[in-house]
């Protein structure tokens, strides 16, 4: 579908949350067969698309990879697409969950309060990744500058269910879009939480496992060592357009204020 002048209805698209998964159209429909066009992500022709998937979405969407295609990056006139599988975080991190209505607000609206997770939400800065995605999408439209390409997450066993990403020595995903949170880690970002009774969200709300101060001292003998490593990584990622300058400065400020390696 196009406008009267032949132009696209939307200038670009930013689908997220495992949008390349060829899931059935309903719970009663059969799974699409391997090679079925319905099991493929088919972006609008000629329109820039950046699809973003967290490790949670990778576990969900990649579990269908035996019968779907993860779209290849492309810069052809008819197919302009990037797939960004983020190397850390979860579907519902703290920076999004903090905007959810609390029990009092739900009660005022006439809804029963949903069971909340019994742990702090994953603190991965997914917003910083998305900020850079929006900037890169805008440049792709405005002056034709193609966005950077990212490596993909690697499944431990693509035939397992669910598919899980391969992890590094710190328990964080290998590959994908990088951030200082996983390049200079102070903890493990678990992509899926324990599902609470009566809750539909907690399985998508990951959590953090902070490193002990003893281990942090092995990784970063002094606070300045940690700050310097974060700063170097931020500068690299800003130069490569994976972070905006604003978010990079924010992450450096957070590192300077962090109690790392601790007392």
Q: How would you portray this structure in words?
A:
With 263 residues, this protein is α+β, with helices and mostly antiparallel strands. The protein has 8 helices and 5 strands, in the order E-H-E-E-H-H-H-H-E-E-H-H-H. Helix 7 (223-239) runs antiparallel to helix 8 (245-257). The mean pLDDT is 85.
Helix-strand pattern: EHEEHHHHEEHHH
Roughly how many Å apart are the termini?
Answer: 61 Å
Proportion of strand residues: 5-15%
> Major sheet: order of its strands?
1-3-2
Helix/sheet category: alpha+beta
What's the gyration radius in Å? 20 Å
Could you give the topology of this structure?
Blueprint: E1 49-53, H1 55-61, E2 74-76, E3 79-85, H2 94-97, H3 103-108, H4 126-142, H5 180-183, E4 187-190, E5 207-210, H6 213-219, H7 223-239, H8 245-257
Parallel strand pairs: 1-3
Antiparallel strand pairs: 2-3, 4-5
Short recap of the structure:
The protein is α+β, with helices and mostly antiparallel strands and 263 residues long. It has helices at 55-61, 94-97, 103-108, 126-142, 180-183, 213-219, 223-239, 245-257, and strands spanning 49-53, 74-76, 79-85, 187-190, 207-210.
Entry keywords:
alpha+beta, three-stranded mixed sheet, 263 residues, 8 helices, 9% strand
């Amino acid at each position: 579908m196009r406008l009267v002048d032949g132009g696209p209805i939307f200038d670009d698209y930013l689908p997220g949350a495992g949008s390349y998964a060829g899931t059935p159209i309903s719970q009663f429909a059969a799974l699409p067969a391997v090679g079925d066009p319905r099991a493929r992500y088919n972006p609008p022709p000629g329109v820039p698309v950046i699809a973003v998937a967290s490790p949670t979405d990778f576990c969900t969407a990649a579990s269908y990879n035996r019968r779907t295609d993860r779209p290849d990056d492309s810069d052809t006139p008819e197919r302009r697409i990037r797939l960004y599988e983020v190397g850390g975080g979860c579907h519902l991190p703290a920076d999004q969950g903090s905007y959810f209505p609390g029990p009092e607000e739900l009660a005022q609206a006439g809804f029963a309060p949903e069971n909340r997770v019994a742990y702090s939400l994953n603190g991965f800065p997914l917003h910083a990744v998305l900020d850079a995605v929006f900037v890169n999408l805008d440049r792709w439209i405005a002056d034709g500058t193609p966005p950077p390409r990212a490596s993909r997450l690697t499944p431990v066993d693509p035939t397992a269910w669910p598919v899980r990403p391969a992890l590094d020595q710190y328990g964080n995903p290998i590959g994908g879009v990088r951030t200082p949170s996983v390049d200079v880690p102070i903890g493990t970002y678990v992509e899926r939480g324990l599902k609470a009774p009566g809750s539909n969200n907690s399985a998508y709300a990951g959590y953090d496992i902070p490193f002990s101060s003893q281990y942090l001292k092995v990784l970063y003998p002094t606070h300045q060592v940690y700050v310097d490593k974060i700063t170097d990584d931020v500068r690299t990622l800003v130069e490569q357009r994976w972070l905006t300058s604003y978010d990079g400065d924010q992450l450096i400020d957070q590192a300077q204020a962090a109690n790392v390696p601790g007392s």
